[in-house]
Amino acid sequence: MSTVFQPIISADELETWVTETLQLWWLTYAREFELQKGMAEDSLPEPRSWVIAEEVEREGTDQLPSIVVVSPGLNGDRPIQEGDGTFDATWLIGVGIFVSAATRSDTAKLVRQYGAIIRAIMLQKQTLGGNANGTTWLDESYNDDFTFTDDKTISAGQVIFNIQVASVLNRFAGPMQPDPDTQPGSQWPTADTVEVEIVKEEV
């Protein structure tokens, strides 16, 4: 049950929903990808780190493959206010991929395979566990010249999505007076009786 404030959704929650959805479905989709491509089971290495941040630390190359989820903010469209005062908003979400393999060719192939798996999960599980209204695939790109250190072959990629979330805030909610001690978490009181006055107008 919502409080008098009603939900207040942040981009941090959205990044968490994306990360948890990818983690939950990764192994299932990776194995399906392997089957479709005639690859041996478990030939695709599982991600070793899941990061919600703007970039991967250069010293963290022992944690590759790595998936990085980040939102720079809304996608540029104005949030939509519904009649009940709630706002629907669309965030831009990037899922970064950092992988390493024995050769440059294998590394380039792996980052593309990861991109395909991420794309499939995000579009086929587009509500992110029931938290989002939908997900739109915008872009997918790779950087095969990306390197952390001279002695590692590393490739980076990213898959970009729009994610729409309903009821991120309600304009008409919120308490009448500031009270940090009792208001947070409180509910609107339940009315015991309702009085209705009917006025007949001449037509």
Tell me the layout of helices and strands.
Layout (H helix, E strand, L loop, with lengths): L10 H26 L12 E4 L13 E9 L5 E2 L4 E15 L3 H21 L9 E10 L10 E17 L33
Parallel strand pairs: 1-2
Antiparallel strand pairs: 2-4, 3-4, 4-6, 5-6
Helix pairs in contact: 1-2
Question: How would you portray this structure in words?
Answer:
The structure is a single chain. The protein has 203 residues and is an alpha+beta fold. It has one domain (11-170): STM4215-like, CATH 3.30.2000. Helices cover 23% and strands 28% of the residues. The chain is built from 2 helices and 6 strands; from the N terminus they run H-E-E-E-E-H-E-E. The chain has helices at residues 11-36, 104-124; strands spanning 49-52, 66-74, 80-81, 86-100, 134-143, 154-170. Strands 1, 2, 3, 4, 5 and 6 form a 6-stranded mixed β-sheet that branches. The two termini are 43 Å apart. The model has no long low-confidence stretch (mean pLDDT 85).
